[in-house]
Automatic annotation (TrEMBL):
The keyword Repeat does not apply. It catalyses: GTP + H2O = GDP + phosphate + H(+). Keywords: Cell membrane, Elongation factor, GTP-binding, Hydrolase, Membrane, Nucleotide-binding, Protein biosynthesis. This is Elongation factor 4. GTP binds at D16, H17, G18, K19, S20, T21, N133, K134, I135, D136. GO terms for cellular component: plasma membrane. It is an enzyme of class 3 (hydrolase).
Amino acid sequence: TDPSHIRNFSIIAHIDHGKSTLSDRVLEMTGTVAHRDMQAQLLDSMDIERERGITIKSQAVRVNYTADDGETYQFNLIDTPGHVDFTYEVSRSLAACEGAVLVVDATQGVEAQTVANAMMAMNANLEIIPLINKIDLPSAEPERVKAEIEDGLAIPADDAVLASGKTGVGVHDLLEAVVYNIPAPQGDADAPLRALIFDSYFDPYRGVVALVRVVDGSMRKGQKLKLMASGKIILAEEVGARHPAEEPLPQLGVGEVGYLVTGLKDLSQVKVGDTLTLAEGGVDEPLPGYREAKPMVYTGLFPIDSDQYEPLKEALEKLSLNDPALIWEPEKSHALGFGFRVGFLGLLHMEVVKERLEREFNLDLLATAPSVEYHVFRQGGEMISLHSPQEMPDPGEIERIEEPYLKAKILIPPDYVGAVMDLTVARRGTFVTMNYLSQHTVEMLWEIPLSELIMDYFDKLKSNTKGYASLDYDFDGYKPSNLVKLDILLSGKPIDALSFIVHRDKAYDRGRVLTEKLKEIIPRQMFEVPIQAAIGGRVLARETVKAKRKDVLAKCYGGDISRKRKLLEKQKQGKKRMKAIGNVEVPQEAFMAILKVD
Ligand code: GTP
């Protein structure tokens, strides 16, 4: 296709503003997918995405659109993930585009991720088409939202497209706006190949498939290509476009977006953000902006049944093929046996990965409380990156500890400034500044330890602001902090998998609340189980789980058999998520109790 007839763009939005619904409508209205084949939210192909209504991996779809001028255009629509955990993938996807459609919910207005995504699109020099969505809703306020887009984002919104992904109103206007406002790709068709890898996934039959944007030159089936980050040479087994069903093509020309079957079996060799060139006669300079995605949160994943250690390892290998941000190393716990310490971009990423491991690979897993990466400096200066509280050296050996901080940006209506102050100060946040973006929106900037943010901060923020607050954050480097390891002891024995790192000033409170929580969570056993929280040898709090008095069935008088069966059933289910630690049965919840401590 002649590049003048190509439009590469992304649809960006705050979560739930209707991006996926709108993308689906575009596919349907361009005849890419017939109505009867529309599965709700076609682009969100993974089950978990569909269930949770979130887009995790970005996707690319090619659409042919015959415009009102009678010409047919090739649209490459690149869907981007909407959640803050996945901003690296958003930025890679945007690098493959010339324009972006900024979707804003007509009833919600500009929210934190609207701002963050719009900033990223502006940084990538994209042409932005504002679209005010869900105008079918009676509570839609398109004029107010236009003003917010102009005041808050400095994007002209007079000509914003007014649309509804649900009814299809305004989608034709959107398609025309894409043709006229988004620039055609510019590249050198005669230069050697340079292509950006903006996504990749593992296909069980064909190996690693990369989603690519050709910047210069072209990519043909059968060519030998080089991955510039690793220098690895691969064979282009197949190239083509996705509609979203894959259509093999002889080549991908300059400016085009499509897929490449690499034949590689290991996804870690195909890094998102890397540049592809020709193996012979290729370029020396990669495309700008490649960086490795860096995990922020670590957790221990242990199979409930130790026979599942190898299958868990294989599953992690498979998933990380498709997810360069996922890293892991073996971890051994006295309490839980052999497992892995796994690094994630954030808590949502962690939940999604754990769920996929359990569902797609049939594993029963126990996850320990998430922890961040601490920098521990030993006396004498050696620094250790600590991913697990278990690796903490003795206090006497430690000179200082540093922890990761975030710059957090919170958008709220002015009424909630006080509530956010109270909560964030209690989480060791340092207030930086506050601006009125509009009459209805205040932007507060904070510095807050990442470890505090991962403790249900977001849930608390939402509930303390009646759901109005939105949060965005960036990594802000390491700062020294007075941190200690808090041990949890069951029946007098420290349980390594339950220990965690906490600020000294919070140690007593957290220890007390946690022992109380654990008392509720750990089921009664045949014997008494003392629970203690301690620093070094010093006990800060103690609770006791009393011994079981009678059999569960003793509760049922006489012969109600179905009730008995139900109780047994319930007991069995409760068991599933338990792990015997020594002789105490500890449920999964116990490990997550640390996250909910106020
Ligand atoms: P992520 O992919 O998770 O970022 O969400 P999204 O932005 O793709 O939102 P999605 O398309 O999943 O829509 C969110 C919710 O809004 C769903 O419940 C949709 O049914 C609803 N919705 C989407 N578009 C419209 C619309 O135009 N009108 C109305 N009334 N509801 C809509």
